[in-house]
Amino acid sequence: FYSKEMQNALVFYDKKMEDEMIKSFFIANNIKRGIDEGEFYLMYQPIFDINGKKLAGLEALARWQNKDIGLINPMDFISIAEKTGNINLLGDFILKEVSKDIVKWKDAGIDIPKVAINISTKQLEHQDFCFNALSIFEYYGVNLFKIEFEITESIMMGNIKIILENINYLNGAGISMSIDDFGTGYSSLGQLKNLPIKKIKIDKIFIDDIPYDSKGVEICRSILSMGRILKLDIVAEGIETKEQLEAIKRMGCILGQGYYYSKPLEPHEIQNSFL
Ligand code: C2E
Ligand code: MG
Ligand code: MG
Ligand code: MG
């Protein structure tokens, strides 16, 4: 029925799908063991004040170095952890690791202005999330005003009642919220207006377009002007070139993050860079 090429294409496609299924299955079944055996760790990417080139904060990014299949990216394991429910376990592990690192840096005499932690909608939907998180920070003696949680527009599709209760509670305790990957989800201006958030991060896909694509430039401009109206801080994510940095700076963006400044670093590299 199929030509020779078509048959080969089908076989190739099936093999690729099969490999991905095996990998997903492996990930789903090994997250808990991986946490217990110390295979997960954190890297930290600096966020800069664009004008003074001063450190404004760090973003914690999870990594999984597995003994059998090597380095696994968060893009691959976070969504699976969300589906299996292991995201709560992994999330608590991450909060503990960040707390330990903050204490280590503090003991080494480095004062990090802010540490941003990515939080999945699934975590924020959990009734016990605030209690858990605040207990961890209290145990390690972390100043809550140093912590920021990055959430995505997907919270709009979650259990918004619990999510809002949690966000308000965290805000009250001193932890601020930022919207990550802004522009890639389905949130509207109207919804954003009612959310108790402090910051938005313009997604890399829009930064990729500047300065040469005029539509991309207009999108960044309008996100920045909206930010000014709603009195939100704005971070440009994924800045890779000097041209992008200059363009976003001209548009009035204050905060920037991306390979142009720095890739994610090991905790001890943070220590060496900012001491
Ligand atoms: P994100 O929170 O938007 O993080 C930014 C991602 O972009 C990171 O990828 C970072 O390494 C990458 N990046 C930063 N600057 C540049 C750049 O200039 N060029 C390019 N090409 N990439 C850049 P990473 O670490 O692979 O994380 C991917 C996503 O996985 C994160 O996107 C976040 O949504 C999720 N994630 C990572 N760690 C955690 C975590 O601890 N918890 C949760 N829930 N999600 C996490
Ligand atoms: Mg993030
Ligand atoms: Mg992002
Ligand atoms: Mg992202």
UniProtKB/TrEMBL annotation:
The chain holds residues 287 to 561 of 561 of the full protein. This is Diguanylate cyclase (GGDEF)-like protein/PAS domain S-box-containing protein. Residues 24-275 form the EAL domain. It comes from Acetoanaerobium pronyense.
